[in-house]
Amino acid sequence: MSFENTTLSQRISEEIAIKISEGALKPGDRLLELELTKEFGTSRAPIREALFILEKDGIVERVPRKGVFVKKRTKKELLDLYEVVYRLLEIALTKLMDSRTDEQLKKIENLIIKMEETLEGNKVKQCFDLLEELQKDFFVFSGNTVLEDLYMRINGQLIPFRYISLSYPTSMEHSIREYSEIMAGLKEKDLKNILDSLKRKEKRALAILEKFVDSQ
């Protein structure tokens, strides 16, 4: 597998995160640079940068004189991270509702349409990428850069588990429906509809996370 140089390290880090989410790499597994260079068909420099990105996001950890390992997280840590992300989303969507522009609404609507297209063939990876872009836009469009920065730092730690959640049966359909409801709330400036939809999404995501963690 090889990638364009412009986003090489970032894309490698995303691929490794997905391998973790799919169970190909498990908590405690060591990540060897030499093996990764062969797998991704690249030199050590972008591999090291990708591992640095994952370390910064809290997905892997570097142990002195031992190497880089997939980070182990407790159930409580994961639930706490999810809770913070959803509280940040509440703030971002509340701010966005009051300031949203037609151009922003059009961008959100187009992303949801593209997500719907991924249902044919169950294209989880494509749907996940669009979902990540959509959530990031909620924070960018809120106009609060501190909020955006907090979200990006915390969300990176949840990427493997968010991918797992989206991979569960009917999860893509539920996610798209929930985001469509949020979109309708933004259009109509209906905060209750927005927060109710977000609460349903949070409840469903936490149920999947608990089921996954308990099965490990």
Give an account of the 3D structure.
This protein has 216 residues and is mainly alpha-helical. The chain has two domains: 5-70, Orthogonal Bundle (Arc Repressor Mutant, subunit A), CATH 1.10.10.10; 75-215, Four Helix Bundle (Hemerythrin (Met), subunit A). It is 74% helix and 5% strand. The protein contains ten helices and three strands, in the order H-E-H-H-E-E-H-H-H-H-H-H-H. Strands 1-3-2 form a three-stranded antiparallel beta sheet. The longest helix has 25 residues, at 75-99. The chain is globular, with a radius of gyration of 18 Å.
Question: What characteristics describe this protein?
Answer:
DNA-binding, 3 strands, disordered N terminus, mainly alpha, three-stranded antiparallel beta sheet, Four Helix Bundle (Hemerythrin (Met), subunit A), WH-like_DNA-bd_sf, 10 helices, TF_FadR/GntR_C, Arc Repressor Mutant, subunit A, 216 residues, DNA binding, DNA-binding GntR family transcriptional regulator
Can you describe this structure in just a few lines?
GO terms for molecular function: DNA binding; DNA-binding transcription factor activity. This protein has about 220 residues and is mainly alpha-helical.
Write the layout of secondary structure elements.
Layout: H1 8-22, E1 30-31, H2 33-40, H3 44-56, E2 60-63, E3 67-70, H4 75-99, H5 102-117, H6 124-142, H7 145-155, H8 159-167, H9 171-188, H10 191-215
Antiparallel strand pairs: 1-3, 2-3
Helix pairs in contact: 1-3, 1-8, 4-6, 4-7, 4-10, 5-6, 5-9, 6-7, 6-8, 8-10, 9-10
